[in-house]
Amino acid sequence: VFSSFHTAFKVSFHIDKQQQSKDSVFFRDGVRRIDFVLSYDDDKDGERKQERRKVYEANLEKVGLELETEDKSESEDGKTYFVKVHAPWEVLATYADVLKIKVPFKVNDIPDNSEMPMNWLSTPFRLPEHVMHPEPDFFTAPFNKSKSDFFLIDNKDTFFPPSTRNRIVYYILSRCSYFRDECAEKDKKGIKRLLNNGTYTAAFPLHDSRYWIRSRDDKCESERYNLYKHWARFLCFFKEQPLNLVRKYYGEKIGIYFAWLGFYTEMLLFAAVVGTICFIYGFLTYGDNQWSEEICSDKIGGNIVMCPLCDKKCSYWKLNTTCNSSWQSHLFDNVGTVFFAIFMGIWVTLFLEFWKRRQARLEYEWDLVDFEEEQQQLQLRPEYETKCTNRKMNRITQEMEPYLPITSKCARSCLSGATVLLWISLIIACIIGVIAYRLAVYAAFASIMKDSPTAHLEVVGPYITPQLATSVTASCINFVIIMILNLMYERVAVWITDMEIPKTHLEYENKLTVKMFLFQFVNYYSSCFYVAFFKGKFVGYPGKYAYMFGWSQLRNEECDPGGCLIELTTQLVIVMTGKQVWGNIQEALVPWLMNWWGSRKARNHPESLYSRWEQDHDLQGFGQLGLFYEYLEMVIQFGFITLFVASFPLAPLLALINNIIEVRVDAWKLTTQFRRPVAAKAHSIGAWAEILNGMAVLSVVTNAFIVAFTSDMIPRLVYMYAYAPKGEMTMKGYINNSLSVFNISEFPEFSRYRDYRYPPGHEKQYSHTMQFWHILAAKLAFIIIMEHVVFIVKFLVAWLIPDVPADVRARVKRERYLVQEYLHNYEVEKLKIQLSQNSSECNCTPMIYPSLSKHEVLSECL
Length: 862
Known about the structure:
GO terms for molecular function: chloride channel activity; protein dimerization activity. The chain is an alpha+beta fold and 862 residues long.
């Protein structure tokens, strides 16, 4: 009995100790913090992988890292080994010096005058002070190990935050060799290669706690819990984001993304309000739409017979069948459209300029002012170092570094460019294929749905149903093509970017960003560009229609009866809304299902035995391209609300609603569904800024052309001011004026079609009338005037708004001045101490030099 009791006591003690250690983020001793975790399965590994791990871990210990291995018998699944990595102070200090990590040396003494007037209005939207600003503001300087006493080091264990610690450890892991003879195998290094060849199954830093409960360890911060409670829950959608905590926990790169997304969402509020007002204006002027009244009238629209919309298989139809689409078109095609197009051209400039100011403030607050130069010089990609065998002197650092010969660089760039052009051509070919499908299938549907020879004059007619069937099937095919090509885009873009061997991580991401955006731009916007600028523009006229590629079966499409603008609006709403809804569902549902499936076995065990590293191991990896797709999604949305916003003023409102959800969905999945990403620095949104600038300029041009050529606004204004009856400024008679005449034998009267051409019997029959040229001149004049007005305002606004706020410039100068002053005083004090120590050993005394001061005597002694 005593023996059984003693055994039970030992087992109970062991379980309590196991629970305590496994629920924390420390080694078994409870002192050394786990900065990184490596995992592997040893059951089916060969000797080669075991040797790699043995050498790699031995080399990690040589550089000063401390390792602790959890045997597979201690793991929940019974087959996974976990190697816990800890970086002691000496390693952290050494690499903080190498990476020039900025750390505090003095409390900021500049008064904060950033408080806005009537700040109490924003109180309901603010988070508690301890969440937003958990630490005081400091002046910072690059860490120098030899001057460690210069910095404010209260506790060496907590001086470097966990995000900085895991960034330093990952830097070491990425450059540590796993081959005994490093000179013989230069490319045998880095954790990425070990993950790719299956030596390790995962490598990740730990979350500091569970997201739904605080850590049981008093030494742990539980920042993940705070992020979930105050940021990731949807009920916090009206609250500001705790960006400082996001930056502290995930690093500057993720912090800058959420700062940009939040700022973009805030600016969308103004665009959404103005767009909604323009839509309401169209709704309130619904009854003043005289041309729609004429279309719907039985006396006017009911007596106008229109030419068939396809050859042979399509019938004639009456104009009043387009009554509903004409009324709907007025909601978006009105005078407010012109105003909103001009407003959005100015809004996008304000958005980009104010973001530059916001970004400059974050750069200062997050110690990123001089980061780009440091990154370009110091943080080379491990792949670049291993693949570039040639070396040359760096003129800045005066050190030998690897480089890629110019001939190899040009050859790789040419091959990359050719591949990009090939894939863009493939996308365009697919779009052309879909257009050809629409042209061919429309006639087939029209033929199938034609009931009788008399159906060509009935209101139900062969137009609406075949058009709807064609649009639905073509949209489904286009969606399938987009999804298939999207799956291939990533692999191709990553492959050609890897082939170029970029020098730094920033350069790699910028190159990949440009390639992926070009693909997505062509993929998502091609159909909108086709409807806006090509459909209905090259139709010809009865008896001389234009055909695609000259094929008699593929007659070029005409616009919808309500005009091309309403079709562009419809397509924009479907593509934009569908993409956003599907994207949010996919972002939230897919990682949750994968995590549920991966951790289903662990749910049968007590959570206290389900260790911190095992919990994180069962989560999804954030991946190298995690933020890339988030940016890409938002930039594609930005294109929808800027490039084609003249056709749909409610687009900013839909984007605003989506982004309010997007912020919380991204925060939720990052906090609860993904492993903690390796902290990374970024001083800006990278190449996305240039892409946004380019789209801002292009949006002015596209909206001007949409108003001029896709909308009917200019023809109506020309008619009202120049061709209205008896000089009256009225739209009465516009419909009859805008339709040309064609002589047919089936009816005693003429059929009509949309164009400005002379009627049969005229000496210039079927040639363009003078009104056509007047309208064309008015369209071109409108484009020139609108572009010049918007661009002048854009450049004026950009010139008036400085990129860096005045107070930030002053703070940067103040900090640089203090760094120099404090370093000078530090060196002087250090010299005094040295002189005092040397004076006790010096044989020289003031008696020998009676005319010299004590300081001069010490100088003479030295």
